[in-house]
Amino acid sequence: MMVPAVLSAGCGSGSVKSGAAGTGSGVPPTAWAKSVCTALSPWRARLASLTGSTQAQLTSTTTPAQAKQNLVDLLGGAESASEAARQKIADAGTPAVDKGGEIAARFVASLQAARDAYAHARSTVAGLDTGNASTFYTAVASAFDKLQHEYAASALDTDKLSSAPLRQAFNEVPECR
């Protein structure tokens, strides 16, 4: 499973509960993995829906001003969905595994980076001049290229987690399939 991630421990406005240096405190790995995947499922579905809508918007006949408003709305939706998922992950607590606090913080930071990438793209598109269609669509393509780069730069592969119990939990919990 790939999750957008920045490998820093910044947690944004939500907080990840600390502790869980060993397995004696925190959330059991299977419960934490279930919470994470349950939070990510609607987020992924929303992003897929927004991606489909964006493609439809860009291929339909609209004015640059209409396209701009539609794209700003779509990017704002992705930003909001990413923040909602980030908050749910922060609320999931800390897995009761070695370096559980660091791992939880990486997941939160991952979604924070995704949220910020969508916010940057939304802000860029919102500031574009629609007077010249060719210039506008070239700038939109550039904004989406930057979004894709920022989003890809934040990828966290759960298959490479430093915690064997969490890797196992992500592989076994039905919500993660």
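(ticket continues) Second input and output from the same batch:
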Amino acid sequence: MSLTGKVAIVTGSGRGLGLAYATELARQGARVVVNDVDQQVADDAVAAITGAGGEAVAVVAPVGSTETAKALVAAAVESFGRLDILVTNAGVLRDTVLWKMSDDDFDTVINVHLRGTFTCVREAATYLREQGEGGRIICIGSPTGQRGNFGQTNYAAAKAGIVGMVRTWAMELARANITANAVIPVAATAMTETVPFFKQFVDAAARGEQMPPFARRVLGFGTPDDVAGVIAFLASDAAAGVTGQAVGVGGDRLALWSHPQEVATAFQDGGWSVDQLTEDFDSLFGQVLQSVGQPMPQPPAEKPADAPAAQKVEQR
């Protein structure tokens, strides 16, 4: 696989997951437009990429507005002559429970994640269709958007919306040979370091230590570099037949998220009255009601050093 000759934009790529994506795309041969809101952070990212033999330029601006989207595409075309790949990664958090969430908390997250994804993809897709050589749209989702998470009304809404838009874009852009996919990463970043459940693993990664198998396999939790390969694959010609998908990745785990679909159906001549629902709903659907939130399995108890290792075959 090679991305030689390709040009990519990665929003929110000054640090963390975004920087890992930009670095890997450059390593595979793509020229990259880096984006961040901090000039020094953006300059450092460009320096790291060019220092490793890649090519990169920076656009320092917050995503959300049409003006930033236009500036990003213009930078790609003016600096490198074309555009082939867009990765929408930029994001912020304003976590709090529903009854304490302010309008600004909600609007800020929606503007950066959801509107920022929309404006950047709209601008990139418009250019890619005119360029006429296909392209790759890769949007970053989250398990919170798939399952919900306590204290993240705004973030859950934005990330669920992103995956919904990706499914729509996969249909709308197919005739132009432009794929649209979502990636659902789980990794040690500034956004996960404050989660108590992940703290020990984030701290281990910060110390340069290998995360334990429980984190990497059971939780599917790893480092930003563990996610970057999926981004480069979806950006490549090898993934030309993959579109409209939500691909989960973290640690040693690669997964494909299902699209929402009916899990049970029932029919009543003339439709369903309140009385009929009261009588029948539990017997019809009580055993298939869907769970919410991400399940967090507890780590196994440590075994004595002389205990024999159990043989296990994973089945999924």
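Agent notes: The longest helix spans residues 103-131. Residues 304-316 have pLDDT under 50 and may be disordered. Closing as not reproducible unless the customer responds.
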